[in-house]
Amino acid sequence: MISRFGFLASGEGASPVIPKPAEIIVGFIAFGILFFLLRTRAVPKFEKAYKDRTEAIQGGLERAEIAQREASQALTMYQAQLADARGEAAKLRDEARVEGAAILEQMRTSAQEEASRITTAARASIDAERQQAYNALISQVGAIATDLASKIVGEALDDQARQSRVVERFLEDMEKAK
Predict the structure, then answer these.
(1) pLDDT tens digits, one per residue of 115-169
(2) Structural domain count, the chain
(3) pTM
(4) Per-residue b or e along 20-33, where b marks 16 or more CB atoms closer than 10 Å to that residue's CB
(5) Which residues lie below 8 Å from residue 3, measured CB to CB, with a gap of 6+?
(6) Residue 156 Rama label (left phi>0; alpha psi -120 to 50; beta)
(7) Is 153 within the bounds of a domain?
């Protein structure tokens, strides 16, 4: 007799662990239908999603590599331009330094020439003033000497030639006295 759980009460017949052959066949058919549905419907979608994801990752990696190469090239180009700019700046500094030295030398030469010209003009002016002073002194000394000689001699020395001789003699005597 069969108990309420479907087992034989006396222990005869089928074992509770081993299923009946009809259940095995129904299980295989249900498994086959489920396998077929999963294989035809779900697995392709999973494979497509996996493939899309793989392609997206690969594309991202390739784009990243391309971007990396472009960035590397841009960095190399930037460094080359920076080196060129630094070289150009150094060249401009050197040119400015040379030009500054040339301007300084030119200004120094110009200043020396100007100082020389001013010194020459000052010497010429001093010589002219000395000559004027000497001439004025000689005429004053001559007048004084003539007055003095007139007083000593007791007669007027109005004659110009006589005055000149007297003055010249007086000056020669003064130079000898030095």
Answers:
(1) 999 999 999 999 999 989 888 887 787 777 777 767 776 555 566 666 677 677 7
(2) 1
(3) 0.39
(4) eeeeeeeeeeeeee
(5) 9
(6) beta
(7) yes
**Residue 156 neighbours by CB under 8 Å, 6+ apart:** 150
Token pair recorded at residue 158: 């109005």
Q: HSE of 59 in the Cβ direction (CA atoms, 13 Å)?
A: 6
| Residue 77, in any domain of the structure | no
Name the helix (H) or strand (E) containing 90: helix 43-153
How wide is the angle at C-alpha 119 spanned by C-alphas 114 and 122, nearest 5°?
125
d(CA 89, CA 97): 12
Residue written as token pair 């500094």: 93
